[in-house]
Design goal:
By secondary structure, the protein is mainly β. The chain has 1 helix and 10 strands, in the order H-E-E-E-E-E-E-E-E-E-E. The relative contact order is 0.28.
Amino acid sequence: MSAGDYEEDGFFGSFRAFVGNGRLILSDVNSVETHAEWAGDSEIHATPDSIYLYVQHPVDGPVTVDLFEGDSPDLALAGAALFDGTIPSLHGEFVLHDPAEGIKLQAITDRPGPARLRISGDDVSRPAIVRFQIWY
């Protein structure tokens, strides 16, 4: 994909970083969910307004993450579908971060309410490349 394609498809942002504890969190900006009931025995844990996802551990290398507003199936990575569902937001604002907030990417959409969310990766277990898609 070229930079122009990203703009057309609602590109919010991306990063390539060593993700603390090998975990990413996507949530409504006002979420207070802690996922305390998650024993870490699955690769992903979803609550109504946040998603916890295991990714490649920092000792194994950096993780590449893209965040888009768009439902195009062409944006999904061919490796694995990690999540396909909904996530609500009171104000249409989401934050993608690691637990220590050393990495933080905020996405402001044009509307509040329940949004569709698709997460895909290059592997089903501890992906090194992850793509998030949010749309209404």
